[in-house]
Amino acid sequence: MNINATLFGQAVWFGVFIWITMKYVWPPIQKAIADRQTLIADGLAAGERGKHELELASKRSADSLREAKVKSAEIVVAAEKRALQVIEEAKLAARVEADKVVASAQAEIAQQVEQARAELSGKVADLAIAGAERILKREVDAKAHAEMLAALKQEL
Questions:
Q1: Is 16 helix (H, G, I), strand (E, B) or coil?
Q2: What is the signed CA dihedral for 69, 72, 74, 80, rounded to 10 degrees?
Q3: Domain ranges of the chain
Q4: 116 alpha-carbon distance from chain centroid
Q5: Residue 137, Ramachandran bin (φ over 0: left; ψ between -120 and 50: alpha; else beta)
Q6: Cα angle at 93 between 75 and 91, to 5 degrees?
Q7: Shortest CA distance to 156 belongs to which of 131, 113, 122, 132?
Q8: What is the pLDDT along the chain (156 residues), one digit of tens a residue?
Q9: Between the CA of residue 68 and those of 12, 65, 139, what are the distances in Å?
C-alpha cells in the first residue's frame, strides 16, 4: 500500500469526521455552554441584587431603629413634661384647697370670736346688774336698768 494514499484517505476521513462533528455534535455543546454561561451570569446578577437588597435592608433597618430611638426619646420627654404638669396641677389644687380650709377656719374663728364677745357682753351685763343689785340692795326700775345695760352692751 501506498503511504500517500493512506495519508490522503486519513485526511479525507478526518475532514468527514470534523464536518459531522461540526454539524451534529458541536451545536449542542455550544448550546450547553451558552446555557451554562447564561445560568452563571443570572446567578451572579441575582447574587449582586441580593447583596444590594441586603445593604438596602440594613440601611432601612438602621434608619427605622434610629427613628424608633428618636420617637422613644420624644415620648419620654413628653411623659416627663406631662408628669411635671400633673405635679404642678396637684400642687395648685392643694394650695386652693388649703386656702379654702384656711378661709373656712378663719371664718369659723371670727364667728366664734363674735359669739364669745356676745356671750361675754351678756355675762358682763349680768354681773353688772348683780353688782348693782348688791350695792343698792334694793330694786330700781327694771326698764331703766335694761336700757342702761343695752347701752353698755353697745359700748362693749
A1: helix
A2: -140
A3: 22-155
A4: 58
A5: left
A6: 60
A7: 122
A8: 677 888 999 999 999 999 999 999 999 999 999 999 999 999 999 999 999 999 999 999 999 999 999 999 999 999 999 999 999 999 999 999 999 999 999 999 989 998 888 888 777 777 777 766 655 644 556 676 677 777 766 766
A9: 80, 5, 99
Residue type, 62: A
Query: Which residue type is seen at 152?
Result: L
Is residue 156 within 8 Å of residue 124, measured between CB atoms?
yes
Report d(CA 54, CA 60) in Å as an integer.
10
Cell of 26: 458541536
Give 53: exposed, middle or buried? Use CB within 10 Å, 0-12, 13-18, 19+: exposed
Q: Three cell numbers at 80?
A: 416627663
